[in-house]
Design goal:
71% of the residues lie in helices and 2% in strands. It is built from 21 helices and 2 strands. Strands 1-2 form a two-stranded antiparallel sheet. A hairpin with a 2-residue loop joins strand 1 and strand 2. Helix 5 packs parallel to helix 7, helix 10 packs across helix 16 and helix 13 packs antiparallel against helix 14. It is globular and about 60 Å long.
Length: 448
């Protein structure tokens, strides 16, 4: 009975068709979570997350969507270590219920939100047993969803989730390669004789290539399957000729990474050893020659793209980004210069000086969106990934950086925080005075 009452309260909170009320509720939650310190703030924050988690059981899809949005907002605004420690398994399985094939009907929006929530959960728990459980529990549902004939609009969020959980929770290269194969099949499926191939959209291709590159950046010992590498590089080279700029940029970064991790150099070493053994017509030597020819083609393509004139309807900003990227790629191929990136995080500078780190940084920044700065400041897993050590004086110092309006919002008697604090104190006073003791005693049991 207590559980049902809790769910009804949660549904009431998230079940509204009034967009303005949703916006104000989301804003209030975000504002609450940005305030520094105080057990009452933590109480309200945990309460909101618990209510959102309960609302994921509701039958109405819009209610589940709003609850998932609230959870993602909470993960973006604060590091939810305390909530994750207690409820991570429940949140994981509720999100998987929205993704799994044959479960309650879920909209593309719900699947996108559930996938994103799982990715946020993985980044928050960091390496360890919990990240491992997230990976093991999620890999099959994600694989089944991506390999089934799903709505194309659902695929990008599923791909990004797969990339993040593998990045955090995958234990070895074999698991990483399995996830990369799943991604590749989305745009190059193994079709039966009676199945008609569906041409993938440009945004889907760009997402697959970006997620695939993100995982490739973590691979240290390459398997020298010449046929696969020739096929991959040839395909990526063909994408450099596509009209869509996002596809060209994703393909260019992937090719730069492939050559940075030494694919051709490894084939060169194998071909040299084969020549020493007087196997002049060996396949490794043929592969090396073929890949060298491909590299020459890619270099010429990158050179052309670095000086491309703007086409019809071309955004100047996007064009400049492409030209700068391919200028960097061309210089890397020709002279071995790696890209140098410096990004300000609070008062600190985050540096990246390789294609692999640049790709990882851009992917995680894109995935976290508005939560990127908060995570980079306080997420120890990301500190380890990027070798980033923020100055502690910039952490837990939100109050000093509040604007006048924010201080009035949180410190005034009518603020959301003070109202929540007042409700909590009133309840505690009633309990201590023994009023309606039976009712509140039941309420306490229900909440526990």
């Amino acid at each position: 009975m207590g559980k049902r009452n809790s769910q009804r309260k949660s549904a009431a909170m998230f079940d509204s068709d009034d967009d303005s009320s949703v916006t104000s509720s989301s804003t209030a939650r975000s504002d609450l979570m940005s305030v520094s310190g105080g057990e009452d703030v933590q109480f309200v924050q945990d309460s909101l997350l618990d209510q959102a988690l309960d609302a994921l059981d509701e039958k109405r899809g819009s209610t589940r969507e709003k609850a998932l949005s609230s959870i993602i907002d909470a993960f973006n605004t604060n590091m939810q270590y305390q909530f994750v420690e207690k409820k991570f398994a429940t949140l994981l399985h509720q999100c998987l219920a929205s993704i799994k094939k044959g479960s309650k009907k879920a909209s593309a929006k719900e699947i996108a939100l559930a996938s994103h929530a799982i990715g946020c959960l993985a980044l928050t728990v960091g390496c360890g047993d919990n990240a491992r459980e997230i990976f093991e529990e999620s890999i099959r549902p994600l694989d089944e969803s991506l390999t089934s004939r799903i709505d194309v609009s659902k695929a990008p969020s599923l791909l990004e989730c797969l990339a993040i959980i593998t990045f955090v929770g995958g234990n070895d290269q074999e698991e990483t390669e399995r996830s990369m194969d799943i991604m590749w099949r989305v745009i190059n499926p193994k079709l039966g004789s009676n199945v008609v191939a569906v041409k993938p959209s440009a945004p889907l291709i760009a997402t697959v290539v970006s997620a695939w590159s993100f995982l490739l950046s973590t691979v240290s010992n390459l398997k020298l399957n010449s046929k696969n590498w020739q096929s991959s590089i040839s395909y990526l080279s063909s994408l450099l000729d596509k009209e869509d700029r996002s596809v060209r940029i994703a393909a260019g970064e992937a090719l730069a990474l492939i050559f940075e991790i030494g694919v051709i150099d490894k084939f060169s070493a194998v071909s040299d050893s084969a020549s020493d053994a007087t196997q002049k017509e060996s396949k490794p030597l043929e592969s090396y020659i073929f890949l060298q020819g491909l590299k020459g083609k890619v270099i010429n393509q990158c050179k052309d793209l670095s000086v491309e004139a703007g086409g019809k309807g071309s955004a100047k900003k996007d064009l400049n980004s492409q030209k700068n990227l391919f200028r960097d790629i061309f210089e890397f191929f020709e002279y071995g210069y790696s890209p140098e990136i410096s990004m300000k995080i609070g008062g600190d500078s985050l540096q990246a000086s390789s294609w692999s780190k640049m790709i990882q940084l851009n992917f995680i920044k894109h995935f976290l969106g508005g939560g990127f700065v908060k995570h980079m400041q306080e997420n120890e897993f990301l500190h380890d990934v990027f070798g980033f050590s923020p100055k502690r004086k910039f952490l837990n110092n939100n109050e000093n950086r509040m604007s006048g309006g924010e201080k009035r919002m949180f410190k005034s008697p009518n603020s959301v925080l003070n109202k929540a604090r007042t409700q909590l104190l009133n309840k505690q006073r009633l309990l201590s005075e023994g009023r309606n003791f039976g009712h509140y005693a039941v309420g306490m049991v229900d909440e526990e």
